[in-house]
Amino acid sequence: MSIDLITPRRHSLFEDFQGILIGSVQAALGVFILRSAGLVTGGTAGTALVISYLASWNFSLVFLVLNLPFFIFAYMARGRVFLIKNIITVALVALVTEALKPYLHIDSIHPAIAAILFGISSGVGLLGLFRHASSLGGISIVALVLQDRFGVKAGWIQLGYDVALFAVAFWFFPLQIVAWSLLGTAIVNFIVALNHRRDWYVVS
């Protein structure tokens, strides 16, 4: 009995463009919903949210600034194409999150619903970005590189960072806020850990 092997191919430029665009919009929508409920999350986006809440600074600007050192790591680890994709993704997430403000108003949402919708939207978005060799910047860049090089699942790497971030959040936010936020972050990491495997999917 013969087994037909599918020869892997790289994504085309258009495939990468639409994948990064859709993934970025999904992630931005998740962050917008999360912020509307006053919740936080993990990763660099979560760090930016915590800082923006505590200092009353603009989330998108903080998110962009926090990613600058990780862009250097992205270039050193995987080269110019990976760097460009991550810059585009981070910029898109920041811009879309701001662009939604005048057009999408969430006056009331239960934090549990916000956490679940965020987790699914951002988790699927991040999964799509990973599959097009991009990420949400920051710790997700590190997670993606470590998974590719050492086989450690990206979702678990992010979860380790998130545990440390939430340990800090417990000092500044009510227990209920942190608890619901943990639910959303757990959903994101579960989706990535379960579905993103290098041996299942060859990225560009």
TrEMBL record:
The chain crosses the membrane at residues 20-38, 50-75, 82-100, 112-130, 150-171, 177-194. It holds the Pfam family YitT_membrane. Keywords: Cell membrane, Membrane, Transmembrane, Transmembrane helix. It comes from the Bacteria. It is a multi-pass membrane protein. It is found in: Cell membrane. The keyword Endoplasmic reticulum does not apply. PANTHER family: UPF0750 MEMBRANE PROTEIN YITT, UPF0750 MEMBRANE PROTEIN YITT-RELATED. This is YitT family protein. It comes from Pseudogemmobacter lacusdianii.
